[in-house]
Design brief:
Length: 168
């Protein structure tokens, strides 16, 4: 078991809101991958980390007997990165991050807010996965689905804003 890995560099040891802290740590890391590489790289890194996370969380749960320990926040990274690989899903240079025309920063922050909302409220299939899936897969799957929904909703909101701007 790799405690450093599953607590995302020990960010999950935060006494208050470890899931939010883990997501805050994940956001700039994911944005940097989008800036210096691309959305496909972020997506593939997310898949790899998710697979490793399931295995490591299974080891932890077998050893500790605790399912979905709040200190485990690698699943937040998987969800946040999955959201970012959908929206903004664009590569920009470091100098273009704050350019609101390309939507990179707005969609990244919107994905963050939406991911936290879906991860906390667990509507529909997200909640069902959280309740019914066992082991590491259950811990990671609800966050990945929450990330997918957050990324899609963020992209739809951004596209809606662009269409609204055209009409005005």
């Amino acid at each position: 078991m790799n405690w450093f890995f599953i607590t995302l560099g020990y960010s999950g040891l935060s006494p208050k809101a470890p899931g939010t802290v883990g997501t805050v740590v994940s956001l700039p890391l994911g944005m940097l991958i989008l800036i210096y590489f691309d959305a496909q790289t972020l997506f593939l890194a997310t898949l790899l980390i998710s697979i490793i996370a399931v295995r490591e969380i299974n080891k932890y749960e077998a050893k500790s007997g605790i399912h979905d320990d709040k200190r485990i926040v690698i699943d937040e990274l998987a969800g946040m990165w999955f959201a970012l690989s959908i929206a903004p899903a664009i590569s920009v240079g470091i100098g273009d991050v704050a350019d609101f025309q390309n939507g990179f920063l707005i969609q990244s922050l919107l994905s963050f807010v939406l991911f936290r909302y879906f991860d906390i409220t667990k509507p529909s299939i997200i909640g069902r996965l959280d309740r019914e899936a066992k082991g590491g897969l259950g811990v990671v799957a609800d966050d990945v689905v929450a990330g997918a929904v957050a990324g899609i909703v963020s992209a739809l909101i951004w596209q809606g804003l662009l269409e609204l701007q055209k009409m005005l």
